C-alpha cells in the first residue's frame, strides 16, 4: 500500500512549496542542479580501476534581469539531475518516476527504486529538439510502498 502524504512529509526535506508538491500519495520533486557528463566513466570487474565520468554543472541563465530564477536550455542528450529535496524510504520501498509534464515532451529519466535514503541522481534523457527547464521546476514524483 502506498503511504499517504501525511506520512510522506516525515520522509522528505527541502520542500519548496508544500501545497503544490504534495498530492494524496506522492510528492513532486524539483530540480536543483543539472550536470553534463564531460568524460567517459571507466568500469572494470573488481572496481580497482574504476573512474567516474566528470560532471560539470550547467549554470541556469536568467531571461531577464528582473527574473528570480534562471533556465537551463538543454540540447538533446543525457544529463545528471540533482533534486532540491532529500527523500528517504526508511520503512518501505521508494520509487521516483518522471512526471508526465517531462515525458509528454519526449524527455524522461529512468525510474529509481530504493530503500533508505535516495543516493542516486537520475539521468535525464532529453529529446533531440531540446528541453528548457526553469530552476525549481517539478519533474519527478516520489512515492513509498509500505513494508508490512
Write the layout of secondary structure elements.
Layout: H1 5-8, E1 12-13, H2 18-21, E2 27-37, E3 55-58, E4 71-74, E5 77-83, E6 86-98, H3 100-103, E7 108-109, E8 112-117, E9 123-126, E10 131-134, E11 138-146
Antiparallel strand pairs: 1-6, 2-3, 2-5, 2-11, 4-10, 5-9, 6-8, 6-11, 7-9
How would you characterize the overall build of this protein?
The strands form two sheets. Strands 1, 2, 3, 5, 6, 7, 8, 9 and 11 form a nine-stranded antiparallel sheet that branches. Strands 4-10 form a two-stranded antiparallel ribbon. The chain is mainly beta. Helix content is 8%, strand content 45%. The mean pLDDT is 95. The longest helix is centred in the N-terminal third of the chain and has 4 residues, at 5-8. The protein starts with a helix and ends with a strand. It has one domain (5-39, 54-61, 70-146): Deoxyuridine 5'-Triphosphate Nucleotidohydrolase, Chain A (Distorted Sandwich). It has helices spanning 5-8, 18-21, 100-103, and strands spanning 12-13, 27-37, 55-58, 71-74, 77-83, 86-98, 108-109, 112-117, 123-126, 131-134, 138-146.
